[in-house]
Specification:
10 helices; mainly alpha; globular
Length: about 160
């Protein structure tokens, strides 16, 4: 078995261990390590398992910052799964923190056009209408050509979550 498949199998076999009352700091450190110190395929495996619900909400909450960062600065597939994982969180509890992190990473990565694309898309997919409108207004000079009239119409008609 090659290294990538071995790492993926290792993580998948231990994911249930993470979810069974393991000491919180150990769980947090293990998940952080899996997200920060692995190659793209392993990262994708981790965030995909979060998105599919194999890693429970409390685990996603432990690495919220890393998942948001992956969602807006990562590879497109990772970004999509990270967004799905974030959908498992309680919007009421985590909405402000997610918005704060999106703005933080956007400010840190203004030279990367992909960040603006993934950020507004994440806000859209999470249903954060008001935050999305504020984001577009704040960063519109960086987002030239990113949104068309159909996108703006969809945003205007979306329901705030």
């Amino acid at each position: 078995m090659d290294r990538i498949h071995r790492k993926k199998a290792e993580f998948e076999s231990t994911s249930f261990y993470y979810n069974n009352n393991v000491e919180e700091n150990k769980k947090k450190n293990d998940l952080r390590k899996a997200l920060e110190e692995t190659d793209l395929l392993s990262q994708l495996s981790v965030v995909r398992m979060m998105g599919e619900g194999y890693i429970f909400t409390d685990s996603i909450e432990l690495v919220l910052e890393e998942v948001v960062e992956i969602a807006i600065t990562g590879h497109e597939e990772c970004a999509g799964w990270a967004g799905i994982a974030l959908n498992h969180l309680s919007k009421k509890k985590w909405k402000d923190k997610i918005i704060e992190l999106i703005n933080f990473y956007t400010d840190r990565n203004r030279d990367d056009n992909a960040v603006f694309h993934h950020s507004w898309l994440l806000l859209y997919k999470l249903g954060f209408k008001h935050a999305l409108k504020e984001y577009i207004e704040k960063y519109k000079k960086y987002m030239e050509g990113e949104l068309d009239n159909d996108d703006l119409s969809d945003i205007e008609n979306m329901v705030e979550r």
